[in-house]
Design goal:
This protein has helices spanning 2-23, 30-33, 52-67, 79-88, 103-113, 127-135, 149-156, 159-166, 176-185, 208-219, 235-248, 264-273, 300-306, 325-329, 344-353, 362-373, 376-391, 396-407, and strands spanning 45-49, 72-76, 96-97, 117-121, 140-145, 170-173, 192-194, 224-230, 253-258, 278-280, 291-293, 310-312, 334-336, 356-358. By secondary structure, the protein is of the alpha/beta class. It starts with a helix and ends with a helix.
């Protein structure tokens, strides 16, 4: 199985590099992708995160490690993740692009970074990187480990490959369900622990208040709601809901953040098809808009704080949902669709608290938004319940970082 993985990796690598060059401006960084990372002599903990959500966890985890005397180096996969890491992370983390999982690339990267440990955030399993790290005596950790239903179906087909990569890996899983999935894929039972979801410990970015003030000034007075992390296929559904909301609240405004910035033109087209005036946050913030589209990175959290309530995308279409906790952190009621498999436990906790509502389609979304916009007292009460539910589950970062630091001396 390993030879097949290496063959497929060799074939796919040029296509992946072409995708980065064409679709993710600033993410190619070819020398780094080939393993030519900048040298480090302080023996950092190498933390790898995919994109914005994982990078936020990585930055919070690195802060906890720093408090325990452990320096960190950060790599990220996407342009958005790298941009956020450079903007919000400390300079000493020196964010770089994640190398290709080819033997020569990961070996070169490990030699140049010389890490004392390798940490991957959430779902990533890279066979070549894991094997080369273990061969070099570098312990490998997965923090905030989770395997969604879709990820489990995909990886279980290649269990032989992944079990070989996972057998020496230490896993801090979000829940017992995810821990069981890692064990089923081949992680050693004694190396898997459950420490909770690190997302509950995230804190607002340093620019939060400044961005919140700017967005509030753009939104002006009157009712406003936010749709965050909207995925492909949801743009029209959200615009349809907003058009229905405006039938009863003509002054209502929507701030919409697409999950991927290349979907901004589709958002503009969807708004136009429902007769809504749309503006782009960065390039065309013209006044008098009905929908403000965030064509920026790192402004979703402050945007949630501007709205009366928030809808979290990836959930009206069967994509598993996005992070439902960020609106709760700023005390806003949370709405989402029927597809929240990626955040099942968090969604259920918010629903049980009375701080969240599940909507089956765009019509129900419009009805729920209208009800909350027309009753500010109800919206505030639901937001407080959501915030309380989120705060009750803090502490995972401290537990996981202590676990890692305790293991390092003995390895």
């Amino acid at each position: 199985m390993r030879w097949l993985y290496r063959l497929l990796s060799d074939l796919v690598a040029p296509l992946w590099l072409a995708y980065l060059a064409l679709r993710q401006r600033g993410a190619l960084r070819l020398p780094e992708r080939l393993g030519f990372l900048r040298h480090r002599k302080d023996g950092p903990v190498w933390i790898q995160a995919v994109s914005v959500g994982e990078v936020r966890i990585a930055l919070r985890f690195a802060q906890a490690l720093k408090e325990r005397g452990l320096p960190s180096a950060l790599t990220a996969t996407t342009a958005a993740g790298l941009s956020l890491a450079r903007r919000e992370g400390p300079p000493e983390m020196d964010p770089q692009a994640f190398p290709l999982d080819l033997h020569s690339c990961v070996r070169r990267a490990l030699r140049r970074l010389n890490p004392r440990a390798l940490v991957l955030v959430e779902t990533e399993i890279w066979p070549e990187l894991f094997r080369e790290a273990v061969r070099s005596g570098i312990p490998v950790f997965i923090v905030n480990g989770r395997l969604s239903d879709r990820a489990l179906r995909r990886t279980v087909r290649f269990r032989t490959l992944y079990s070989g990569a996972l057998k020496e890996v230490h896993v801090a899983a979000q829940s017992e369900e995810h821990a069981a999935r890692f064990r089923a894929l081949g992680a050693h039972p004694d190396r898997v622990r459950v420490y909770g979801n690190l997302k509950y410990d995230l804190t607002p970015p340093p620019t939060f208040e400044q961005l919140r003030t700017e967005l509030a000034a753009l939104a002006g007075e009157g009712p406003c709601w936010v749709a965050g992390s909207v995925r492909e296929g949801e743009e029209r559904l959200v615009m349809e809901a907003h058009a229905a909301v405006r039938e009863t609240s003509p002054q209502a405004r929507l701030i919409l953040a697409p999950r991927h910035l290349d979907r901004v033109p589709d958002c503009l087209e969807a708004a136009s098809s429902f007769g809504l005036r749309a503006a782009r946050r960065r390039t065309d913030p013209t006044p008098g808009w009905d929908v403000l589209i965030l064509d920026t990175v790192g402004e979703l959290w402050p945007a949630y704080a501007v709205g009366t309530l928030a809808f979290v995308g990836g959930s009206l279409v069967p994509l598993g949902g996005q992070n439902v906790l960020e609106p709760a952190f700023v005390g806003r009621p949370v709405l989402f669709g029927p597809h929240t498999e990626n955040f099942r436990e968090e969604a259920e906790r918010l629903l049980a608290s009375g701080g969240a509502f599940r909507t089956e389609d765009s019509k129900e979304l419009a009805w729920r938004v209208s009800a909350l916009l027309s009753d500010p007292a109800l919206a505030q009460a639901c937001g407080r319940r959501a915030l309380q539910a989120a705060e009750e589950h803090k502490g995972a970062v401290s537990r996981a970082s202590q676990w890692l630091s305790d293991l390092l001396p003995g390895l």
